[in-house]
Amino acid sequence: VQLQASGGGSVQAGGSLRLSCAASGRSFRYYSMAWFRQGPGKERELVAEIDTAGTPHVEESVKGRFAISRDNAKKTVYLQMNTLKPEDTAVYYCAGQKVYNQYSYWGQGTQVTVSS
Fold it and tell me: How confident is the model over 89-99, as pLDDT tens digits?
């Protein structure tokens, strides 16, 4: 399985971006999917997850601003990011297939830069 993330860029605070992660293979619908991020000098952290039934979970730090969704027909998971803040600046990674609380597959990352 290969994951290809896209949609990153540079925006001003208060702006929006939508990240996409396209998956190869036939098993996408059977995978939980997630978005992580790693900011400058920080450890990688979970941003949001979505299970095979489409039930989303968004971390408290971004709740109310970010939303995760998936389109199984397109084999794509999305992260809609609104009201962006400078502290959201990070490389964002998509991940798939959660096994024993670890993700097996990772995308290459897409840079999001939010300026004040």
Answer: 999 999 999 99
